[in-house]
Every structure is written in structure tokens, then in C-alpha cells.
Amino acid sequence: MKKIFKYLGITSAMLLATAPIAAPVINSSTETFVQAETNGKSDVNKWLGEVKSTVNLTKNSSLITTEELDTYYVFGSDGMFFLYPQELTPEQNVLIEKGDSFFKHFNDNSNEDNLFFNFQYGVIMTATATDNSVSGNLIKDQVNELLSEGKSVTFHLSLRHTDETGAHSWDSFINEPVLGTKDVVVNPAKSETSNIKVPGTGISELFESSVNSTVYDDNGKATTITLPKTSVWNVDRQMNINGTTFYRVANNEWVKKDDGLAVTLNETTVNTNKQASLYTSQGKKVTNRALAKNTPWYSDRMATINGQTMYRVATDEWVMADDIK
Q1: Model's pTM, two decimal places?
Q2: Where is the S-layer protein C-terminal domain positioned along the sequence (predicted)?
Q3: Is 70 exceeded by the pLDDT of residue 117?
């Protein structure tokens, strides 16, 4: 298993070779080592109580970033994460210089008591799918994938202490006694449209505009958009405003029902059984031409016009079903 530990963007090897940031503190007057003091059970319970049971992400929340991956994550199939307690709070943002950090929301540290804010305390955690849709401990990419799909992830935290001094990595804590545990459920960001009420009721129609149809918004206000005459549109909702029925052809885009008709796509050849009159999609009779008796005509759609089933044989010319074989 590959082990990587970074603090403030510096690898542990470099840290030991340069500045002794996590080394034992020197008392300047006595030049003796001041050892980390083991806190009592009451402090452990207090700290666990401050860690949130639930973290609700928002649309602006970060998932686990590559930068955090280098800092916190122990690579391997066991899917373990390692952090210091302060890195679960807003105080850790020195590690992530730009943008949000996923883990800092686990404890808002509202009391500002800095419990266990020293490098002899560490938090080992694993993550699992809250709904058990994925078995076993999750690796970083699985955590991000589940949250992106709208599913919750539960992190299982264990607070540990080591007597070792100096710079630490996860393996300084993994075999140490567990002082306390806490589960944190991270919920995905809610969809922005989840609370938006869509007007009207659901239907399923194909709508052909009989005129150049003005498009209206959800409130029935005319827009500058126009649907071309004889164009066909899928309709998924209808609404009524002041007695006028509107069909929805796109999000926040509606046309008046009376500006067209419902059609059924139906490619076929029709044959006239007599000289057949032609009609427009608005039901008006075409007076300057007709279809000759016993002639075949290609048709691509049918509709009910003037209470009669008709077949379209030209751009805006329809023949009655009674006039064909």
C-alpha cells in the first residue's frame, strides 16, 4: 500500500529535514521538553459532541479535491483517511489555499477551545455508502461519485493519541488505542429545482403550429420567440390562464393551444376514392385546387380537424379520411 503524508504542502521527509514544526516544544527557560498532555475522557466526549452528526453540502461545497487527496488520504484498497483534529475545522484552511475544503465542515469549532489541536492526536476514518449501495470502505473517487449522484456517505471517525513526538503520518496512530468514535453523515447538495413548482399538468402530445405562434413564459407573458408555422413540437404540460389553454414546448416556453393542433406522425400512402377537397390545418377549405379521383398521395401525419380525421398531403393541405380508400 502506498503511503503519502503531507502537511502544509510539505512531505514528511522534507519536514524532518528542515523546520521542526511538529517536534516537541522547547521551554526556553529550562530547555526541557514539554510533553503533550493526555486529555481526559470528558474532553474526548466534548470534542466528539462538537463534531457534527450530519453535514449538508450546498451547490458551492467542494468534494474531495486532488489537493486534499495528497494531504489526507492513505492510498490503498482499505480506503482510509487520516487528519489531525484541527483539520476537521475551519482553522485548517491554511492547507487548502483556494476555494472550499471538504473536511473543514465536520466541526465548526464554535467554542474555539482547540481541543486536541496538537500533533499527538490524530483522526483515522473510513467512509461507507449510507444506503449500502456500494459494499466496503470507499476510496476517494467513490465518495465523490456517490455525492455527485445525490447519495449520502457516512464517515466513521476514530480519535487516537500517540506518545510519539515529531512529524506524524497515519501509521503513527493506526495501532494506538481509540479514545472515542463518531459517525458523520455527509448529505449531497439538493437540486436547485427541487422546490420549484412547475405550472400546469402533465400531458404527452405532438403539437403542430397552424400559424407563426407566439411563445409565452410560465406566467403567460408573451416573449420575443415565435414558432414557425407547420413546425411540430413535443408537448409535456398544459396550463390554463384566464380561460386560455397553453401547451409547454420547452422549459418556461408555452404556446396557445388554439394556435395549432395535436398531430400523430404516420407515414403512409393514401388513395382518393373521389375528387377530394383539401383543407388547411385551421379547417378552412382550399378553393383553388383538389385531389383527382383514384390518385395516390404521400402523407406523413394525421390529425382531427373540424371533428374529422384528416391526412396531411402537402405543407398545409389536408384531405378527409372519408375521401380516401
Answers
A1: 0.49
A2: 212-256, 272-321
A3: yes
182, 66, 184, 171: which is closest to 122 by C-alpha? 171
Percent of the chain with pLDDT over 70: 78
Q: Alpha-carbon distance 312 to 264, whole Å?
A: 10
Identify the bridge partners of residue 246 per DSSP, sorted by sequence position: 239, 256
The model's pLDDT over 180-235, given as tens digits with 9 standing for 90+, comes to: 999 999 999 886 554 567 899 988 889 999 999 999 999 999 999 999 998 999 99
Q: How far is Cα 235 from Cα 201, in angstroms, rounded to an integer?
A: 11
Distance, CA of 66 to CA of 144 (rounded, Å): 11
**For the segment 13-28, what is each residue's pLDDT rounded down to a tens digit?**
223 222 232 322 223 3
Residues 6+ apart with CB under 8 A from 97: none
With a CB cutoff of 8 Å and minimum separation 6, the contacts of 249 are 207, 215, 227, 233, 234, 235, 255
C-alpha span between 316 and 325 (Å, rounded): 21
Answer for the pair 160, 121: CB distance below 8 angstroms, yes or no.
Answer: yes
The whole-angstrom separation of Cα 294 and Cα 300 is: 19
Asked if 123 contacts 168 with a C-beta cutoff of 8 angstroms, the reply is no
C-alpha cell at 150: 445525490
Provide the grid cell at 118.
496538537
Residue 230 CB: number of other CB atoms within 10 A?
15
Residue 22 main-chain phi, psi, to 5 deg: -105, 15
**Rounded Cα distance, 222 and 216, in Å:** 4
* Nearest Cα residue to 300 out of 252, 250, 263: 263
